[in-house]
Specification:
The protein is α+β, with helices and mostly antiparallel strands. The chain has 11 helices and 12 strands. About 55% of the residues lie in helices and about 15% in strands. The strands form 3 sheets. Strands 2-1-5-4-3 form a 5-stranded mixed β-sheet. A 5-stranded mixed β-sheet has the order 7-9-10-12-11. The protein has a two-stranded antiparallel sheet with strand order 6-8. Helix 1 runs antiparallel to helix 4, helix 6 packs across helix 11 and helix 7 runs parallel beside helix 9.
Length: about 475
């Protein structure tokens, strides 16, 4: 058994909490029950002391002369009440405290055991509650003393002593011990039930956690085809769902990175091959004609610019991800900027017989970063030319409305499926499968940095429209 395992530690902690709570509850219950048992015992003794004192108070006048304090010689009165019969009826000890005998010469019949007068303050005539050890006994008693008055209706009523009813403290403690035994039995049964519940809950909770742990190990090893618990309860279910989505995203990112590496390798190899071929021809003297040499140098320059753009895209993406790029503010003539962007692709449109149009309904001047705006528009046009077949149609539009500038690039290419539209703005995702898939990702991030956005509308088989929306200021 691995004590460090969550499967073991969770039920142990659960049981430890229940045992601790049960222990504290038992201590409190014992204390409360002890107080209650003591109060009940004293209340019982008080009732008995009051009743017995009343009986003796009624019998005492028969043994005392009503005038002059002369003692009666009538031996019949005390036979009505005997301490032995009362002790048998109540189960408690009965004592008398006072200077004189209640029934002179007849104590054996009454059976009252006398206590020294100094045991309690019987002269006050008040009921008293106390603890004491009777003569000849070895244990303490709870006791209640009640005064005996000859005739409480008269002003000259005489307090002749006190009846004391006592019960062993041990008898009260036995009730507490009985409660402890029952609580202990209930505690053992409760722990057994709690153990079963803890075992069930730990299996129900720990099993999804262990499955997530195995899934995490699999993902760390590069295996994204994982099996996570589908019906885990509560937060574990939410965690499982998020983990499944994370694994899917990681698999998607890894696939995009592979595609990116393949695309970048292809994009780098193509211009490098062209540059190397032309430079080798020039160095080896294969190309002698000055006109052909000039064409070769122009090709080398064009391919070098292509490489520069590719490296620039990668650097821009890295800067955007780390928020280390800068945006300047200047007055930008959007009409002139759109003319420049349009001219960059005019030759390609002519070469591929694409109907390339420019529609300008306003020529606003905005405060923004002109280079970044031109980069976004250029990326949107580049994406449109990649998606549009030869002989197709591409339009570049400029308009202004409600304090915003709208630059739209529309083509009649194959369109974009609905499920592909969100992913299209992620890095390394290409609609046509060609290129690096960085253009739209960079365009989206730059438009957000400029305070704008890019809207996309497309219909499969009919074409796509990207619209850059920028604030005038």
């Amino acid at each position: 058994m691995n004590l460090g395992s969550l499967r073991v530690r969770l039920p142990l902690v659960f049981l430890a909490g229940i045992i601790l709570a049960g222990f504290v509850t038992t201590l409190i219950a014992i204390r409360l029950f002890g107080d209650i048992a003591r109060d009940q015992a004293l209340a019982k003794l008080s009732r008995e002391a009051h009743g017995i004192a009343y009986l003796y108070a009624a019998a005492v006048p028969e043994s005392y002369a009503s005038k002059g304090g002369k003692k009666s010689t009538d031996r019949r009165a005390p036979t009505k009440i005997t301490a032995l019969s009362l002790q048998r009826a109540t189960g408690d000890k009965i004592f008398f405290a006072g200077p004189n005998s209640l029934f002179p010469g007849q104590e054996p019949i009454a059976g009252l055991q006398r206590l020294p007068p100094k045991t309690i303050d019987w002269i006050s005539g008040k009921s008293l509650t106390f603890e004491f050890t009777p003569p000849g006994a070895h244990t303490k008693y709870y006791a209640v003393a009640n005064p005996i008055v000859t005739d409480p209706t008269k002003k000259d009523a005489q307090t002749i002593g006190a009846i004391i009813v006592a019960s062993k403290k041990v008898d009260v403690s036995h009730r507490v011990y009985s409660l402890v035994e029952r609580l202990a039995l209930a505690g053992v049964l409760g722990v057994l039930v709690a153990a079963l519940i803890a075992w069930y809950l730990s299996r129900r909770i720990v099993r999804p956690v262990l499955q997530l742990s195995d899934a995490a190990d699999a993902v760390a090893a590069g295996d994204y085809a994982i099996d996570v618990p589908a019906n885990a309860p509560g937060e574990l279910g939410h965690l499982s769902e998020r983990f499944r989505e994370m694994a899917a995203r990681l698999a998607e990112v890894e696939a995009m990175e592979r595609n990116f590496l393949m695309s970048v390798s292809h994009e780098l190899r193509t211009p490098l091959t062209a540059i190397r071929g032309h430079v080798s021809a020039l160095l080896e003297g294969v190309v002698i004609d000055p006109e052909l040499q000039a064409q070769s140098l122009e090709t080398v320059e064009a391919e070098a610019q292509r490489l520069e753009r590719l490296v620039g895209d990668i650097l821009d993406l890295a800067k955007l991800d780390t928020h280390r790029f800068t945006v300047t503010t200047e007055e930008v003539d959007m009409g002139q900027l759109l003319d420049e962007a349009y001219e960059r692709f005019r030759e390609e449109a002519r070469r591929r017989s694409i109907d390339y149009r420019q529609e300008v309904t306003a020529r606003p001047v905005i405060v923004s970063d002109g280079d970044r705006v031109l980069q976004v528009v250029g990326n949107l046009l580049s994406n449109a030319f990649h998606a549009t077949p030869d002989g197709g149609r591409i339009s570049l539009e400029l308009a202004q409305q409600n304090g915003t500038v709208h630059v739209a690039v529309e083509d009649n290419g194959p369109g974009i499926p609905f499920e592909m539209r969100e992913r299209l703005f992620r890095p390394f995702v290409s609609q046509t499968g060609g290129g690096t898939g960085l253009g739209l990702a960079i365009a989206k991030e730059l438009s957000a940095a400029l305070g704008g956005r890019i809207d996309l509308s497309s219909e499969v088989g009919k074409g796509t429209r990207f619209e850059l929306v920028l604030p005038v200021r």
